Please model this.
Amino acid sequence: MLRSRVHRAHEELDTLIGALETSRDYRRYLRGMAAFRLAAESATDAAFFPSWLKGWRPVSTRVALEKDLATLKLAPLFMSAIAPPDTESALLGMLYTLEGSALGARLIAKRAALLGFTEAHGASHLAVQTGTPGNWRAFLDLLEDAPVFEAEEAGRAASSLFGFAYNAMILVDRAGDEVHG
Model:
């Protein structure tokens, strides 16, 4: 259900990001995803995680994103704060979007490597994101067994988070190319 709910938003974001064929494309992607992920991770960090999640947490890319921006001398962009989820179902929807992004990160990591961006040079966040593939499977198992799950609410939260990622890419396009001075 969540996959079908976010399908359109996911396609729109993928189209906006593009094929990542040039160094400039990757740098644009990095700035947008950093703005989005830093805001989204702050929102989920502030959330209440119910005990039935058994200590499971999403992969955090914050430190690696900050390192990648600094390595490539890119000025960070800051988005408006994203409100922490106020229900367990909204939390699950947000986590679905964040943790699920590791699947697409595998393809992006390959494209980035072809452009010379590696774990050691500007793509450490992709290594972090793809470095624990079992985390996604563990999340799906927990989601399947969730004692509380309002599908519409989770779907809205998941789609909304894709909207924030889309807006982050628009923010990058409006800001233009900026590096640390």
Remarks:
- The chain has seven helices and no strands.
- The two ends are 46 Å apart (CA to CA).
